[in-house]
Amino acid sequence: MPPSFMDKQRxxxxxxxxxxxxxxxxxxxxxVWVSGEISNFSRSRKGHIYxxxxxxxxxxxxxxxxxxxxxIPFNLQDGMSVLIYGEVVVYPPQSQYQVRVYEIKPIGExxxxxxxxxxxxxxxxxxxxxxxxxxxxxxxxxxxxxxxxITGAAIRDILNISGRRNPSVEIIIFPAQVQGVEAxxxxxxxxxFFNERVPVDLIIVGRGGGSLEDLWAFNEEKVVRAIADxxxxxxxxxxxxxxxxxxxxxxxYRAPTPSAAAEVAFPSRDEIINSVDYYIRRLQRExxxxxxxxxxxxxxxxxxxxxxxxxxxxxxxxxxxxxxxxRMLRAMSKxxxxxxxxLKELTGKLTALSPRAILKRGYSIVFKLPEKxxxxxxxxxxxxxxxxxxxLDGNFKAVVIKN
Length: 403
What we know:
Helix content is 43%, strand content 22%. By secondary structure, the protein is α/β, with parallel strands linked by helices.
């Protein structure tokens, strides 16, 4: 039986064939720039973005992972013409090829986007966006300055939320242009107005959402520097949640929307009252607990004091001191008496042994002259030696005539 065709060919599984196509496709097509219109736009709960890029004749699926979506400085939506940069990859479970997007620009705003990136890099190198420059927002501002359009939705949102949360905070509005040729100058003027003329505790700078071109005033270098140089803390509230401006990076706090800025800037009066009540009750409990603890400690010390009876101990020590003092005096008196008797005895012996006592009994003392040494033997003198004889009532001189 002749061999069949299948005996000569390798048999692939579906997965093996899919991965073979994936390897061939991904290795043969380098990263590319592609232009088209966004359709089927969606964002997953994890933050990844999926959409199709189409033109008049074809459509290709695209994906932007969450790590790259955070870098997109504008709002993506269906119908938007964009320029994407990415690599062609295959999704094996469905055998679909798609573009994994790393960069995306709106067509028609490409020059603005490039300008945005270059200015961002320049100011970032200067340190204008450093976290160390950020000032803390006041917890309880009394006055808040708002730099925005007086007719826009942003100021209405701020006023509505501030009135609901804390109507006691004073709001001062500087009517600025937020779009157009003169917008940047009026925004800078508003920031300087609050720093130099009408001091406030906090400044909100912002407007509602729009295209990159609409929001461009908040990317102007003069506006970014004015925000960075402000002595008063600044909240940047430009556009929608997905919109980013250079003002956001320079501000002390970036709010995703003007409404969110109002939520941050104006502390809720009810929350403050509740917090104060909570801390008052907590303080009362702690004081009561501390007082009770100190009272128990006082009772314990008082009982210990009663048990130890320090007054009785002191009195006992005084009594003991008196007793020792009396014993000492008695011992000293007895010792004095004994020593007095010894002294009397020794005095008597000394008196009995003194030369004058001997003289009283009729004896005399002979001194050889002139050295006045006592003559104790006949050998101590010679004939014609002069001597002095001392008796009880005096002395007299004599000469040895016989030895």
